Amino acid sequence: MTFDAIRAQIVAFRDARDWDQFHQPKELAMALSIEASELLEHFLWKSTAEVEQRIATRREDIADELADVAVYLIELADKVGVDLPTAIQRKMAKNALKYPVEKAKGSNKKYSEFTEEGAS
Ligand SMILES: [Mg+2]
C-alpha cells in the first residue's frame, strides 16, 4: 500500500463520519500527543527487561498505539498542507548535515556538542 493510499484511507474514514469539522490542527496535534502518551504507558516504570517482555507479549497493542500516532500525524500533515514524505526527506537531509557520520558514529552527543568538543 502506498503512502498516498494510506492518507486517502484516513481522510475517507474521517469524511464518511463528518469529523473534519472536529479535526482542526490544534485538536489533531493534541490527539497525536495523547496517542504518543498511550504508547509510553506501555513502558512507564518498567526496567529494560520488563520493556522487552512487554513488547513480546503486547506487540499488537503497541502496534495499535503506533498506528494511532501515525494516523493523527498523517492527518495533521494533510490538514496543514505538508507533504509528509517530502518533509521527512528534507528533514533527514538536515539531520545528515547536523550529524555527519564522521562525528556522530557511535556517539550519543547532541549536534551542538560537536563544536564544543572541537573547541576544547
Ligand atoms: Mg490509542
TrEMBL record:
Keywords: Hydrolase
GO molecular function, one term: nucleoside triphosphate diphosphatase activity
Keyword Hydrolase appears in the UniProt entry: yes
Protein name: MazG nucleotide pyrophosphohydrolase
Transmembrane segments: none
GO BP term (any one): nucleoside triphosphate catabolic process
Organism: Chthoniobacter flavus Ellin428
InterPro entries, sorted: dCTP_Pyrophosphatase, DCTPP
